[in-house]
Amino acid sequence: MIDCGMVHANFQDSVAQNMELLRYLTPEIIKNIDACVITHIHADHVARLPLLVRYGLECPVYITKPSAILMPVALKDSAYI
Question: What's this model's pTM, rounded to 2 decimal places?
Answer without folding.
Answer: 0.75
